[in-house]
């Protein structure tokens, strides 16, 4: 009996008696019976916090994990074991208590209803005359009760069906309580060490699904990542969380259906090889999730299917993290932020995760405004290895009376209808990805030169997203599997550390280039008046080729930026009859570099180093050196990144000094290397072979960033602006001459 009582004491390691015996008390050879009596103490708040964090991730740790915890927290292994046992017991007790409360409520409701019916049957009266009712008649009061009872049952069934869709499994109205998401478990604090046994509120109460008899659905407060009502930049917008949940569920249902249906909903376009949506069939088959389109908005909807070198879990985690999402689509996502985490998922996975996000989507041209969208991102696991992620705009829910007009200068109105991807694991470790983009935007804000491209769905459609995903996945796969890439004309390979530093430097260069082209808020550019290119008088003003967008910013010598006044000049031109691949191959050819690049002084360049970023030879980071005969150019190198896929191509370069690159290739910090990127963004023009506006060609955006004065406080002169504008115009004319392109539009 004494041993049984001792084991019972050992197992009582809950909120008020964790074993903390000394070494003498644990010594089995100690003969003093008084010392065998256990002495207990409470865990410290730091130990409780660490144990709670591990419990949220793994409620059943194995022996190895318990040993590691005991070592890190200075506890015994059995103390950790008993703590987890009691923690699981308390969690089970809390859930059972909640289930019993639901059952009691339902039982009280049925008992009241039964008593009412019995009372009505004991003395039936006629509702018309007030006399005794004839057998078989039902009183008016009883009719009202039955109608109300039926309505309440239907409402309860609807709410349970809605919760079942969110949880991914059926939810019973009586017998099964709602399972608690993992983020709700944070309220179940087993706060050993507090006087009342709980450090915080304990288990947060789950509010009724039906408030005030209305059909308004309310999410449990425990799954909220904070006050959603005041998380919109201080705008104080009241949000119906039930409306957000219903919007996400409806969007998820539509996305799954549109990815499974083929003809006649989706029609293949033989000219561009895309599947486009049949809008007439779509309107017949689906109810609009966001209501009617705003006036002046046009729709684009495309679907693309492909294979990516990534598994479904890694891809889902990347898409649900705004930083990794932006890195995966650097030329599409200018900026992204998570405004609120409504639900972090269930069971330790991303399934059921709901996030309110805001993003700036870009097409690399000054003629296309940035699309700023506020949307709900909902992730759900439909089966083992099968995931779906849907995005849908929430402007109609957050601000139903504000409309969807254009935002600040440089932005255009846009909203996302149910868009996203279905990810399915394959046996070889890859993933089959079906991407759908369905958007509406204000076409009046887009220059005529780029309207055919956006209408075709090639600018920000499914192909653009999937091609960028495939290229980034291929880059990471090669980076992990190829420790010694090609290294150009150097006799020694770049070290792994030097390669990583060089790739980071190239990524910063490409990001700065994109920010300068689209004038995002990431860099504080001051926009100047548009300059007209000299010698463009015979062109059509609608072409956009006679205008150069000028922007300036003052750099005070921050890391990675030269001090002084920086001028950015950007313009877009159309090269009819010239395929984008031909333009890309010409611009990355170092032997013909001298035909257009002023830094080459009219001569060819030599590739010193080459780091492959994909199977295509055009996806690479290179280090170019001017020809030895250039004389004073021996201290300058050209860092260049080129990338291409089915949606378009990019060529970005910047001059760097030799000493800085030697430090970078030796594994040194690349953050202090000053860069002013220039380059080209190449896209198809959106025209088809049978169009009346000439044959299909290319849209090329040319952008230069040039330091015009070394003093940050210096004034920008008209002569400096004219010089940069003429340099841009001269470069375009040289490229057109080399590719034999005229000035036709």
UniProtKB/TrEMBL annotation:
Look up the domain of life of the source.
Answer: Eukaryota
Q: Start and end of every START domain?
A: 237-478
- State whether keyword Lipoprotein applies: no
Does the keyword Membrane belong to this entry? Answer: no
What SMART domains does the record tag this protein with?
Answer: HOX, START
Alphabetical GO CC annotations of the entry are:
nucleus
Alphabetical list of PROSITE patterns matching this protein: HOMEOBOX_1, HOMEOBOX_2, START
Q: Where is the composition biased (Basic residues)?
A: 33-44
Compartment(s) of residence: Nucleus
Q: Could you list this entry's UniProt keywords, alphabetically sorted.
A: Coiled coil, DNA-binding, Homeobox, Nucleus, Transcription, Transcription regulation
**What ranges are recorded for DNA binding?**
36-95
Q: How far does the signal peptide extend, from start to end residue?
A: none
Question: SUPFAM superfamilies per the record?
Answer: Bet v1-like, Homeodomain-like
In what residue span(s) does the Homeobox domain sit? 34-94
Q: Where does the protein principally reside? A: nucleus
Q: Which family does it belong to?
A: Belongs to the HD-ZIP homeobox family. Class IV subfamily.
User: What is the name attached to this protein's record?
Assistant: Homeobox-leucine zipper protein ROC6
Species = Aegilops tauschii subsp. strangulata (Goatgrass)
């Amino acid at each position: 009996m004494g041993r049984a009582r001792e084991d019972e004491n050992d197992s009582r390691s809950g909120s008020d008696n964790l074993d903390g015996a000394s070494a003498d008390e644990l010594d089995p050879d100690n003969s003093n019976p008084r010392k065998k009596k256990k002495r207990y103490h409470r865990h410290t708040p730091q130990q409780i916090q660490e144990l709670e964090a591990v419990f949220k991730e793994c409620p059943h740790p194995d022996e190895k994990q318990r040993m590691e915890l005991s070592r890190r927290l200075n506890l015994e292994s059995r103390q950790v074991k008993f703590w987890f046992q009691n923690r699981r017991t308390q969690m089970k007790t809390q859930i059972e208590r909640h289930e019993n409360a639901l059952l009691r409520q339902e039982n009280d409701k049925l008992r009241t209803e039964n008593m009412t019916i019995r009372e009505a049957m004991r003395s039936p009266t006629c509702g018309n005359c007030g006399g005794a009712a004839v057998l078989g008649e039902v009183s008016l009061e009883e009719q009202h009760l039955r109608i109300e009872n039926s309505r309440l049952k239907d409402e309860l069934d609807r709410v349970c069906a809605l919760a079942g869709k969110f949880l991914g499994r059926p939810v019973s109205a009586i017998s099964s309580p709602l399972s608690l998401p993992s983020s709700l478990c944070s309220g179940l604090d087993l706060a050993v060490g507090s006087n009342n046994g709980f450090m915080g509120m304990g288990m947060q109460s789950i509010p009724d699904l039906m408030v005030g008899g209305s059909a308004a659905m309310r999410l449990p407060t425990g799954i909220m990542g904070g006050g959603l009502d005041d998380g919109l930049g201080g705008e104080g917008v009241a949000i119906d969380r039930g409306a957000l949940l219903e919007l996400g569920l409806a969007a998820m249902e539509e996305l799954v259906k549109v990815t499974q249906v083929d003809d006649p909903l989706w029609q293949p376009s033989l000219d561009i090889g895309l599947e486009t949506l049949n809008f007439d069939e779509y309107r017949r088959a689906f109810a609009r999730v966001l209501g009617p389109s705003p006036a002046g908005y046009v729709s684009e909807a495309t679907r693309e299917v492909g294979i990516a070198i990534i598994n479904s879990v890694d891809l889902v985690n990347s898409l649900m993290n705004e930083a990794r999402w932006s890195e995966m689509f650097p030329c599409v996502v200018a900026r992204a932020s998570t405004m609120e985490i409504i639900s972090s998922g269930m069971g330790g996975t991303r399934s059921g995760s709901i996030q309110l996000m805001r993003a700036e989507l870009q097409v690399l041209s000054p003629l296309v405004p940035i699309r700023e969208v506020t949307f709900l991102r909902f992730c759900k696991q439909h089966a083992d290895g099968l995931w779906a992620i849907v995005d849908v705009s929430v402007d109609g829910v957050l601000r139903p009376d504000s409309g969807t007009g254009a935002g600040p200068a440089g932005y255009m109105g846009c909203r996302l209808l149910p868009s996203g991807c279905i990810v399915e694991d394959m046996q070889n470790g890859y993933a089959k990805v079906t991407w759908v983009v369905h958007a509406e935007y204000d076409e009046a804000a887009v220059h005529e030169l780029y309207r055919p491209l956006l209408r075709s769905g090639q600018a920000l459609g499914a192909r653009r997203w999937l091609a960028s995903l495939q290229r980034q996945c291929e880059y990471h796969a090669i980076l992990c599997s190829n420790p010694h890439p090609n290294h150009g004309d150097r006799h020694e390979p770049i070290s792994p550390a030097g390669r990583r530093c060089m790739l980071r430097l190239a990524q910063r260069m490409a990001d700065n280039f994109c920010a300068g082209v689209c004038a995002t808020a990431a860099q504080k550019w001051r926009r100047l008046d548009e300059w007209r290119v000299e010698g463009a008088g015979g062109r059509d003003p609608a072409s956009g080729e006679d205008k150069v967008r000028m922007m300036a910013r003052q750099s005070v010598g921050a890391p990675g930026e030269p001090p002084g006044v920086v001028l950015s000049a950007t313009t877009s031109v159309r090269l009819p009859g010239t395929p984008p691949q031909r333009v890309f191959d010409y611009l990355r050819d170092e032997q013909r570099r001298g035909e257009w690049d002023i830094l080459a002084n009219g001569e060819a360049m030599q590739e010193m180093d080459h780091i492959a970023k994909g199977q295509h030879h055009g996806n690479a980071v290179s280090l170019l050196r001017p020809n030895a005969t250039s004389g004073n150019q021996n201290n300058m190198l050209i860092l260049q990144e080129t990338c291409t896929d089915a949606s378009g191509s990019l060529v970005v370069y910047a001059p760097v000094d030799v000493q800085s690159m030697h430090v970078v290739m030796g594994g040194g910090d690349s953050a202090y290397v000053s860069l002013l990127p220039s380059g080209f963004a190449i896209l198809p023009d959106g025209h088809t072979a049978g169009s009346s506006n000439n044959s299909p060609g290319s849209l090329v955006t040319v952008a230069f960033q040039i330091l015009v004065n070394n003093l940050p406080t210096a004034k920008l002169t008209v002569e400096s602006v004219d010089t940069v504008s003429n340099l841009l115009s001269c470069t375009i004319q040289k490229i057109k001459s080399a590719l034999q392109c005229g000035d036709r539009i």
